[in-house]
Design brief:
- By secondary structure, the protein is an alpha/beta fold.
- It has helices at about 10-25, 35-40, 60-70, 90-95, 110-120, and strands at about 1-5, 25-30, 50-55, 80-85, 100-105.
- Helix content is about 40%, strand content about 25%.
- Helix 2 packs parallel to helix 3 (about 60-70).
- The relative contact order is 0.19.
Amino acid sequence: MIKLLHVEDDPDIREIAQMSLDMSGEFEVVQCESGEDALKMVQNYTPDVILLDMMMPGMTGRQTLEKMREMEHLKEVPAIFMTARAQQSEQDELRQIGASEVISKPFDPMSLGDQIKDIIAK
């Protein structure tokens, strides 16, 4: 099982992603609705991959990842951003701070699990 931490403030997107990843049968999904919640969760949890929303109230996905990268056990964990604003310059910036990939919203629920597996296999 691939342990995935999903950080997303929109409950509908959390639900769609959960159903999508459950269908693949290969993911153990833990969801948080804010960067702050995610930072508390990872005190005692090390995911195999982190799926982050970019735009969230309070702490952005980018700020959340920057804080996670300060934690020894999360330095090398692949991080994937999901964003509706996926201009190339922004994608490049996200990769510079340690994102493995950027998935554009709206995402395809039927292929989300495969996309994530492909990204972490690289």
